[in-house]
Amino acid sequence: MSGTRQFRAGKAVAGGGNVWSAAVRLIRESHRPILTTHVQPDGDALGAEVGMAELLRGMGLRPCILNSDPTPRIYEFLCRRGEPRRYSPDADRRRLQEADLVVLLDANYWDRAGAAGEALSRLSVPSLGLDHHVPRGRFATVQIAEPSASSTSELVYELALHLESHQSRRFREAIYAGILYDTGNFRFSNTGPRAHEIVAALLKDGVSAPRMYERLFESGTLARMQLFGLALQTLRAECQGRLAWFTISREMFDRTGALPEDVDGFVDWVRSIRDAQLILMFRDHEGGRVKGSFRSKTAAFDVNRLAHRFGGGGHQRAAGATMPGPLEDAAARVVREARKLIR
Ligand SMILES: [Mn+2]
């Protein structure tokens, strides 16, 4: 992908116009765009994908969402039947040949999107990136990187305004879900006035707040809550309680029958401890690897940098990394670094 230009949202680009009009031009010139997002897609990743696919469909395009990982069950209500597709090199060969635009959402590089991202990055068609993580470099023809946005779903909403495209009910629910998910129901520091303005507009247009809350946050399984119970028994606090961390072993998954996607949100529940400023969760992952999720309640601790040391990344106050196991060793290595941050 040559001719890559990186923009900060809203900044003017050479030749006039701005990054949004560059994105609009790219979209208007395409017919069969393929959208993808990071591995283990979450509420914002899927909200952004579904929202954007709806917009493009409303303009007469034939978008396709192609992800490396399956969609967690809890988000299925947002999606059309059979969408997103799970990427398969064989089944999707033709689709990739016909694509004339590729879009990476909620990720700051193609490698975050697994096998699908890798395959899409090799196509010689224009590309569009829309993301609110700390930028890691250039990867797309037009790149909108806005770490001050609450979520990528918020950016997709802005894009909708620039496209002047029809906002379907599915679009509105997807954007609402994405913003709700990434702001932790408007609790986190990324909650800005813009997120509230957008949500207000969505509510005016008929989105039901209690329905969305119930679907997203009151639809977990019993196994999930039992897994959290086991995980909490490993909770430890040190550095006068400022550092809190816990682990979830393969055995806990087996005992409860919970799924990997069920751990989503656990690390944020633990934030409710008054003194805890840095919260770390570690869990057994595929291939003997360990996935760490890191949260910071204060600007003093940058977990994006902490995650970076272990090959991961994210945001200043929410980040993660996948590391070699075993579980207790990986946890010990990160906790050692976290202690240094606090002292
Ligand atoms: Mn996000």
Quick synopsis:
The chain has 343 residues and is an alpha/beta fold. The chain is 38% helix and 18% strand. It has 2 domains: 5-216, inorganic pyrophosphatase (n-terminal core) (Alpha-Beta Complex), CATH 3.90.1640; 223-342, Diaminopimelate Epimerase, Chain A, domain 1 (Roll).
What do these coordinates show?
With 343 residues, the protein is an alpha/beta fold. It has 2 domains: 5-216, inorganic pyrophosphatase (n-terminal core); 223-342, Diaminopimelate Epimerase, Chain A, domain 1. It has helices at residues 19-28, 43-58, 93-98, 114-121, 152-163, 169-182, 193-204, 209-217, 222-232, 250-256, 266-269, 303-309, 327-342; strands at residues 5-8, 33-37, 64-67, 85-86, 101-105, 127-131, 142-145, 236-238, 243-248, 278-284, 289-296, 313-314, 318-324. The strands form 2 sheets. Strands 1-7-6-5-2-3-4 form a 7-stranded parallel beta sheet, with helices on both faces. Helix 2 links the parallel strand 2 and strand 3 (64-67). It is globular and about 55 Å long. The model is unreliable at 1-16 (pLDDT under 50). Bound molecules: manganese (II) ion. Manganese (II) ion (MN) binds next to loops.
Question: How many structural domains are formed by the residues?
Answer: 2
Please identify, by name, the CATH architecture of the largest domain.
Answer: Alpha-Beta Complex
> What structural class do helix, strand and pairing data support?
alpha/beta
Number of distinct beta strands: 13
- Overall average pLDDT: 94
